[in-house]
Specification:
Blueprint: E1 4-6, E2 18-27, E3 46-53, E4 59-61, E5 63-65, H1 67-71, H2 82-98, E6 106-110, H3 118-123, E7 127-131, H4 135-143, E8 148-149, H5 155-165, E9 168-174, H6 183-193, E10 194-205, H7 207-212, E11 225-226, H8 229-237, E12 241-249, E13 255-262, H9 271-282, H10 288-314, E14 319-322, H11 327-334, E15 345-346, E16 364-365, H12 370-373, E17 377-380, H13 386-392, H14 394-398, E18 402-405, E19 411-413
Parallel strand pairs: 6-7, 6-9, 7-8, 9-10, 14-15, 14-17, 15-16, 17-18
Antiparallel strand pairs: 1-5, 2-3, 3-4, 4-11, 10-13, 12-13, 18-19
Helix pairs in contact: 5-6
Bound molecules: zinc ion.
Zinc ion binds near residues 10, 12, 13, 15 and 53.
């Protein structure tokens, strides 16, 4: 396919009754950090805008960047984060208990990364198989004992797996379902591989949190859909399946774990499904005004932050950033922050240190260097982790350094 494609229909209900509610202009893909030798090369910038479906209420990106560009070589390796590891250990245990799984049952995960979820499933005695298009990551996972096919998950791959390994009791999709453009194809593929009494388990950021906590920076090209239970359940019902349980999770600023089954499967539909749908209606999640208000709020945020940074620069203060997660690419572009505002960004991941941020080319260095460069201000770009960042770097504050948390309204901590 072309590098980028405009989508003029809803990914869930196929309606063309869409309205643009957020527009971030053109940005590079969120994970395309650059080596020094690449700084002079031409970078690709793609439209980043969010449409609201007036028919089913689904929120989604207006353009899709080729998955070959985004997912074939992925930098993010899940097991480097202890919080992530703990989250997936709990995940495996609760799915195991909730579905009354037996040892030897097959668990297949699409977008399995380095096997961070499949490892605890394996410990519980399950047979596991990962599918992940990032060849470098798939190879490493296989070497570490989690067999992983280096493919995109689709009908063809699902049929091959079913033939070789049998049907899966669990098919998991963590932070990957919302990354997929053709959701009909995914459900078809799940149909080829899932046991008749199995469960398709999706985990993804939840729309209510996006709006209420101002998580606008989780909008980037990888995240094509922003999930709510009501439109999602309708989509599955149209495909002969249905949601039978929903659990709220704290990861990524607020996510939902959604259990889906074939209509005839043995699991009873739990009260949680109706509870979430009622909450979404109460929060006016399917009213376009909710998103217009949201857009105004982040625009005001941008104006306030620009004003503050301009003032500090006028006073000849030095400012650096803290944290270069994928979502910082959206934040830096939307707030228009570059090397003229930020001298560098400190990030804990050794994979990112030594690289430059996509589009804005701000150098990413080790947090140790905060103490040699001593910037007057540290703007916390990973602002949802602000508390732990400030705790970890109390020494910086004690030495006179100041933190700025940029969202929802810029605030200085000294
Ligand atoms: Zn729709």
């Amino acid at each position: 396919m072309a590098k980028v494609k405009k989508i003029n229909y809803c990914r869930l209900c196929k309606s063309k009754n869409l309205e643009k509610v957020l527009d971030f202009g053109k940005t590079p893909t969120a994970n395309s950090f650059l080596k020094k030798s690449q700084l002079r090369d031409k970078e690709d910038f793609f439209p980043l805008a969010v449409n609201f479906c007036k028919n089913c209420g689904q929120l989604q990106l207006s353009h899709v960047v080729s998955p070959e560009i985004m997912f074939r070589h992925y930098v993010w390796v899940s097991s480097t984060s202890p919080v992530t590891v703990k989250h997936f250990e709990e995940y495996a245990k609760s799915v195991f208990n909730n579905l009354l799984l037996k040892k030897g049952d097959l668990v297949v995960e699409m977008g399995s990364n380095d096997g961070v979820l499949l490892k605890p499933f394996k410990k519980l005695g399950m047979r596991v198989l990962g599918v992940d298009p990032a060849r470098n990551v798939a190879k490493r996972a296989t070497k570490e004992g989690i067999p992983t096919l280096p493919h995109f998950f689709n009908t063809k791959v699902a049929k091959q797996i079913a033939k070789k390994y049998g049907r899966g009791k669990v098919i998991a999709a963590n932070n990957v379902f919302a990354h997929i453009n053709d959701l009909d194809e995914i459900v078809k593929a799940v149909g080829e591989l899932l046991d008749k009494d199995g469960a398709f388990v999706i985990e993804a950021p939840y729309n209510i949190d996006l709006v209420e906590k101002n998580l606008f920076d989780i909008v980037y090209h990888e995240h094509l859909s922003y999930l709510a239970i009501k439109p999602l359940d309708k989509f599955f019902v149209n495909h002969g399946m249905q949601i039978f349980d929903v659990v709220k999770k704290d990861v990524h600023g607020g996510s939902v774990r959604v259990y889906v089954k074939f209509k005839e499967a043995k699991y009873k539909v739990k009260g949680s499904v109706k509870k979430f749908i009622d909450l979404e209606k109460k929060k006016k999640l399917f009213n376009i005004d909710t998103y217009r208000r949201f857009a105004r709020k982040i625009e005001e945020n941008k104006i306030k932050l620009s004003k503050l940074l301009r003032k500090l620069k006028k006073e000849k203060k030095s400012i650096a950033g803290y944290g270069a997660p994928a979502k910082s690419t959206t934040l830096l572009h939307y707030f228009n922050l570059g090397t003229e505002n930020l001298d560098f960004i400190a990030d804990d991941s050794p994979y990112k240190q030594g690289l430059f941020t996509p589009g804005k080319h701000i150098p990413v260095i080790s947090p140790k260097e905060i103490y040699t460069k001593n910037p007057d201000y540290l703007l916390i770009l990973a602002w949802n982790f602000a508390d732990s960042v400030m705790k970890m770097h109390e020494k910086y504050k004690k030495a006179g350094g100041k933190f700025i948390i940029p969202v929802p309204s810029p605030t200085i901590y000294d």
